[in-house]
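Q: Glycosyl hydrolase family 76-domain-containing protein, please. Structure only.
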Amino acid sequence: MSFYTGNDLGGVPGLLPKPYYWWEAGALMGSLVDYWYYTGDTRWNDVAEEGLLFQVGPNNDYMPPNQTMTEGNDDQGFWGMAVLTAAENNFQNPPAGKPQWLALAQAVFNTQAARWENQDCGGGLRWQIFPWNNGYNYKNSISQACFFNIAARLARYTGNQSYADWADRTWDWMVATQLLDSRTYSIYDGMHVEDCSVITPYQWTYNAGAFLLGAAAMYNYSTSPAQAETWRKRIDGLLNGTQVFFTGNDKNIMTEVACEPVDLCDLDQQSFKAYLSRWMAATTKWAPWTYNRVKPLLESSAIAAVSTCTGGGNGRMCGLKWNTGKWDNNTGVGQQMAAMEVVLANTIQHSPSPVTDWDGGTSVGDPGAGGADVGRKDRAFPPISTAERAGAETAPRMGSRSRAAGRALHALRNHTLLDLYSSRFASCGTTYSTLLLGKWLLVTNEAENIKTILGTKMEDWPIDGPRLLSTLPVLGPDSIFNSNGEPWHRARSMLKPSFVRDQVADLHCFDRHIRNMLAAISAEGTTFDIQGLLLDMTMDSSTDFLLGYSTNLLTKASPEAQKFVRDFEYAGRESAKKARLGPILYHLPHRKLQKAVQGLREYVRFYLERAVAEKEGEGGGVRDRSYVFLDELLKAEPPEEYTVDQILSILIAGRDTTATAMSSVFYFLARNPRVVEKLREEIGSVGEETPTWEQLKHMKYLNNVIKEALRLFSPVATNSRMANKETILPRGGGKDGSQPILIAKGTPVRWSSHGLHRNKDVFGPDADEFRPERWESDLRARYRYPPPPPKSYIPFSGGPRICLGQQFALTQIAYTLFKFFRTFRAIEARDSGPYLLQTNLTTSFPYGCLGLHIVVIGN
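A: Structure for Glycosyl hydrolase family 76-domain-containing protein:
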């Protein structure tokens, strides 16, 4: 409870502090009810009662107005399950005149039953309640699981068959859609309504637990031997399905298998094991034969969990990974809840059985509760949008004379690199093989194949071949971008803490550098090259963030800083060229490249040594910022060259991709004055001159402009991997390419996100057009082609290797646009040349933002 601030002076009862979402606070209230149920200790009862009642909303159905920006059916469901637990266990009832536990659960059920829709996927609940929220086009298992769980338990508590009918209906729909596999009882994450046959295959503990307890309630409610036997078999099947979540030598330690092994459990997922523990134990009360199967798993998991509870300042904070036998430096509300729940669950046999309406239950119900909100999906609240993704790269700067002379050559090169892929896909299908330098190369634009390579079979497709050759000379062998397997996991674990919310939301990190850039732009309507300024600005901000000392290119750069930038840009271009020579010619000496790499590494090493000296109290210069990435990195005491590799890796992402991503946004805005006006209107609605991170995050149109620009301008236009063993991709075989295809060991594969993002079958006939409105949830119904599933939009790659700094980059882009249009009224394109791209380590405009010059007209 040290994390909970709702009972502090000035706190909001029932809420956890940011960055925790509202639903987890409801889950915490349920844990407090569980704590009392197992221990009899009443110290937290008043806190739980206050929190559960404070968040009910004006219609007593857990739809408070301050949560409609993000509230989903699963969020509401967790509060509903918490109050239903309070009713079943005879938790202290609210005072007269306040909504009662049973009635609150019934209100949640009634509002959700009214949202069941058959239009898409033949039934089910959408993830999000309101059309403006990201995820409204997704039907996920946890939303169905919460609804099923509440319906089944209400049937048992009240004896009302109508609740049981809804539970049956939900189960049947899950099986029909194959979100619940009736053979293995695996439960998968969900599906987008645009294609209900494509299942997101992740399995989460809380899905299994919610369905397990609901099935146990249905077994306990059954009115005939045949019904009881049906649900008995389903309970046994679900228990078999949960075995996937138990790992270790004896397969008996609970693990969040979809994210723990790759260190990618987010804040929500860190709590999921609490609910499987909670509901496995509760199942034994309604399905007693399960006790002998469940108890050993809970006992082993509890012992393992407690072994991790040695962290923090008090020595009692618990870790996420129970099978490590020690604290993993990972602490939070979810970890504490999960450890507490699994320990308490081991005493289930000493706890009373849940009550019913006719067997000791005292909570007062209301079958018509929630009627004021039944069917509501709209209200005059401003819509919300999550920040999207970004990226791009540096480009050489040329004089005006060479620009005109070089366009024809770059048009040809652009065709051979990017448009060539598109033309081949049009004639050969989305997956084809071609000979390149005497070796067969597989080229694919199929989203399922890319998802397999980046996600489900990532271990079959390591960084190797052209991708490795292009980055190895600059970034070194230990770079997070060049390593695989355990070395990659180690690098990601070390770097990830530096990209937590507190650092991403620190707008002061780059505010000074954005102001320097804006000051360099004349307000007299003169023409200038914005990509050059953005490259300088992002280099300044990135070195500030990473090293604590900015290059200050926009103000007064030192000769050493200027040389570092020249070496950096040259090394990036030349290493990409070198990789195109193939593995044999690649090894030809390139002394100038070697010298440039040596120079840029010496520059980073200088500040590394200075940081070490400052850490040891030996003094140094004055830091530009209080938080420095390098200082955090040094806490792990990595080897010097290893640290240099990681710094350069993050610098490429933080400087090059972000700068040309911003350039792409300005490119499209310069040609779309209607979009500019709409964007300026949204920016003008924010009262402050300097917005907060939360305000930027919630600016829907601003984020959609960025998202659309990155769809058309892919930061990494192409990417590649190499098969390390014989493996299979899901599509590309057979006469029509719809069948799986066998891939031989050593086969390189390349895909084009540039082409994927312009796929007219996915994005519609206007896929080549810049239209930010295509991402607006409240306008989706107006267009024939709704937004695609996430696997078709990968500007920051995908799977476990998805870019760590994506939110940092997106925040910087959004903040730059905000400050730009607070300073200037409009932008106009001053170049009619063709749309040209250059591909090196990343994509860029070859002539200072595509040879584009932008005129900025002052207010």
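A: Brief note, in case it's useful. The radius of gyration is 28 Å.
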